[in-house]
Amino acid sequence: MTHTAEREEKQSQATRIDGKAIAKKLRESIACHVDVLVTDHKLIPGLAVVLVGEDPASVIYVSNKKKSAAEAGIRSFEYNLSKDTSQDELLNLIQKLNKEKEVHGILVQLPLPKHIDANAVLETIDSAKDVDGLHIENIGRLMAGMPGLVPCTPLGCIALIKSVENNLTGLHAVVIGRSNLVGKPVAQLLLRENCTVTMAHSRTSNLPHICRQADILVAAVGKAKLVKGDWIKPGAIVIDVGINRTEAGKIIGDVDFDDVSKVAGYITPVPGGAGPMTIACLLGNTVIAACRQNNLTVPSIG
Ligand code: NAP
Predict the structure, then answer these.
(1) Is 13 assigned a catalytic role?
(2) What confidence category does residue 12 fall into, taking pLDDT thresholds of 50, 70 and 90?
(3) Is CATH 3.40.50.720 the right assignment for the domain spanning 152-276?
(4) Helix (H, G, I), strand (E, B) or coil at 115
């Protein structure tokens, strides 16, 4: 019997995957690793967070990252730059942080103001400190199956899937969305787990039909309630990465949660699914980067 068929037999309403609780456990485990680094090696992992401008969502993300870093014992260095900061000024700051010994991870909050070329910024970050995993070298390492730094939201998606199904070998995964930030790295990580992966995007024909083949469905689109219940294979694992704000100011995902819950085996809510995992994985990447830069064994985080 396939994993999906087993799940289908067990239940008629999807089990909610509690990303908040899983992320909390992960942050606690990271805090323990940090304790060991501080006690045994006098090493405090350091994360520099650079924010350009005052985009309200970005301000909240940055403040959450800073708070979570502090709780895990990670030292954070905050750089709040005005929206008029020139590209050269930003690149100079990154070059300075690249050399800073106490900074092991550098995160530049995206999106950047239009006059700044995000690719130029990402390529200036030392790839060893690129805790967002968006430097071309880390993208290449992920593709090649070599150790590197992997983007945080995709790492979080895999941890959520593995919290309910440890062996993904042979499962069919469909990823909707092909961005460098989420869709492509999620697909690579699923491939690494021996899934058969289909990538879908805005030009995909007959998306509902393709989604119905999925044992694992990851939606990373940015279209509220795009994925409906009749797109889902009974028992499937559904991971909703989307963040969409309704007119009433409520945050909802790309998946029609109530409709899809009637068919799926497992489903992540929005909020409280992929979001909290992203921050936890950022802290994990900072610890990994700190260990590598100090020639210490990288702990298995999770
Ligand atoms: P993105 O760069 O805008 O990519 C969206 C992808 O969705 C593109 O590949 C696009 O296809 C595809 N798409 C658009 N409309 C579609 C449709 N109708 N049918 C099928 N595919 C469609 O966005 P992103 O950065 O990947 O983010 C995706 C979502 O995840 C957003 O809501 C974002 O806010 C959220 N997000 C959440 C977290 C978190 O921590 N939870 C982190 C990052 C992002 P084309 O390539 O053909 O245009």
Answers:
(1) no
(2) confident
(3) yes
(4) coil
Mean pLDDT of 17-41: 98
Rounded distance from Cα 130 to ligand 1 centre (Å):
22
Inter-residue contact 72 to 30 (CB < 8 Å): yes
283 HSE (CA, 13 A, CB side) = 33
- Quote the longest CA-to-CA distance of the chain: 59
pTM as predicted: 0.95
Of 115, 119, 49, 120, the closest CA to residue 81 belongs to: 49
Give yes or no for a contact between 186 and 229, defined as CB atoms under 8 angstroms apart: no
**Per-residue pLDDT at 45:** 98
**What pLDDT sits at residue 301?**
82
Which residue is catalytic, options 126, 129, 130, 132? 132
Q: Can you tell me the distance from the alpha carbon of 28 to that of 141, in angstroms, rounded to the nearest whole number? A: 28
Q: Please give the share of the chain, as a percent, with pLDDT higher than 90.
A: 94
**Domain 42-127: CATH class, spelled out:** alpha beta
Could you tell me where in the chain the CATH 3.40.50.720 domains are found? 152-276
Pocket, ligand 1, Cβ cutoff 6 A: 153, 176-179, 181-183, 200-204, 207, 220-223, 226, 241-244, 274-275, 278
Choice from 22, 203, 241 to test ligand 1 binding pocket (greatest atom count within 8 A of CB): 241
Q: How far apart are CA 155 and CA 281, in angstroms?
A: 7
